[in-house]
Amino acid sequence: MIVFGDYEDPLKEAIHYMKFHGRRSLARELGHLLSNLEIPSVEAVIPVPLSKKRLVQRGFNQSYLLASSVSKRLTVPLLDDLLLKTRDTPPQSLLTREERLKNQKGSFKVNSKYKKIPQRVVLVDDVVTTGATVNECARILKKEGVNQVYVITLARASTE
């Protein structure tokens, strides 16, 4: 996992304003931070997907916006519909560590429209705490034929 920084202010505040106050313009700046990290050579960039319900509520997928910057910098495709969220789950931020680890199980799948799956991908998320979400995403991607999944995230949060 490649992490830009700790989930502390001012990074925490910027992520919070982007996600919960609709400040999409912050995604450009935050995506620029991510795109300057040392990222291994990959064939595609994949954002952690949101459920349809959460996407409608928020109006955008923050991981998609961040992944878009990374895709441009690496000059590889952004496959925003390769990985799908199949069911709505409670927000990870509202759960205990144990609940987080169970919450995402079975909630992602690879889109059946993809006949050829890239072998090396980078998975982009905004914040990782327990790693439950990105681990489940990586598990599904590998199950469907991806050989290497690199995870990059803006911030690593503590579960304490």
The geometry reads as globular
Number of strands: 6
The total number of structural domains is: 1
Strand order of the largest sheet: 1-6-5-2
The assembly state of the depicted protein chains is single chain
Q: What this model shows, in words?
A:
With 160 residues, the chain is of the alpha/beta class. The chain is built from six helices and six strands. The strands form two sheets. A four-stranded parallel β-sheet has the order 1-6-5-2, sandwiched between helices. A two-stranded antiparallel ribbon has the order 3-4. Helix 1 crosses helix 2 and helix 2 crosses helix 4. The model has no long low-confidence stretch (mean pLDDT 91).
Keywords:
single chain, about 160 residues, alpha/beta, Rossmann fold, four-stranded parallel sheet, two-stranded antiparallel ribbon, 6 helices, 6 strands, about 40% helix, globular
Task: Please give a quick description of this structure.
This protein is of the alpha/beta class. The chain has a single domain, classed as Rossmann fold (3-Layer(aba) Sandwich).
